[in-house]
Amino acid sequence: MRTCLVVDDSSVVRKIARRILEGMDFQIVEAEDGAKALEACKQAMPEAVLLDWNMPVMDGYEFLGHLRRMPGGDAPKVVFCTTENGIDHISRAIHAGANEYIMKPFDKDIIAAKFQEVGLVPLPEPTVA
Amino acid sequence: MTPADYEYLRKLLKDQSGLDLSADKQYLIESRLLPLARKAGLAGIPDLVARMKGGSSSHIAQVVEAMTTNETFFFRDKVPFDHFRDTIMPEVLKARAARKSVRIWCAAGSTGQEPYSLSMCLKEMSAQLAGWRVEIVATDLSNEVLEKSKAGIYSQFEVQRGLPIQMLVKYFKQSGETWQVNPELRAMVQHRQLNLLHDFSQLGTFDVIFCRNVLIYFDQDTKINIFNRLARSVEGDGFLVLGAAETVVGLTDTFKPFPDKRGLYRPNSARAQAAPALTMPRVAAGR
User: Fold this and answer.
1) Within a domain: residue B253?
2) Which CATH architecture has domain A2-117?
3) Chain A residue with minimal CA distance to B77?
């Protein structure tokens, strides 16, 4: 089973994301800040990272920089998931190696759409009506 | 909603828009019309039907709009846009190399996600289209959705369904919680109100017609009629793109499926080709 690392300092957000992603057949690892997320990646590199921006200790942007310089750190698909919805933040994130970007609030449809976008889950059957 | 109300709405929708609801679509009517009734300050659908029977043309127009407006999002179903980029446009670039123009019709343009997805595809190949005249005509039955399409303004929720983040950054301008399509892309799309049941020959002919997820609502005779008229609106070497649940097969021979490309069709030129082929043996015999 593929693993998704969910990085967010809010336990509520982590719980919602876990429920959605488990429904998409991911095994979930949680981290409450960027530093703990890096530790998790050193132990086992996940296939996907759902990443908040603003967190104590180490923010998501800094985590992404470290991750992409780690051995094997270019492999995970990183999807930001943050209330930072300004175009400047989005551009910085893409430049730093993020694969996709979710502007909070999010729901199941948005997570599914973005994970399809980066090839983490197959496209659904075409919709009718 | 009483069976009589349902029958009344069914008949009215059939007459006004061609929408052909089967007998079991009460839920669809309720989910679309209850919010509309409430917005109009009415208690429910029976009251709405009473107003319509009383001759309120504004209520009738709103009901037709609400029932015929479909969910849509950017690059919906993905595959048709892959066809557009990888199969249709390479052919068009060759076939129209001299004329340097391409005309595309979104026959159910709705709130603009489809025409703007196509204009983004075309922008992505702007190097090959340098000096070309590119025209996208978006039509819809509903004026309300056409106004939204023209404005090109979408909520944060709408731009996160199907639109890759790079495309959002590249082709949209953020304004608070909403995102607006760039003026350059908006200028590529013309908007016209149009009922597919009526004559559309005035739009001219097109190289590509997208007509997705609208014919499914029509009965068989109406579908055949529209296909036959679409065939006259598409260039002989053009393309027709239908929705995933739609096909021409068994309805008309004016279009034929493009091999191995689901939802993609071309006008059937078999008859035109058949004529010269039949004269061949005689030519051979004369030698």
Assistant:
1) yes
2) 3-Layer(aba) Sandwich (3.40)
3) A126
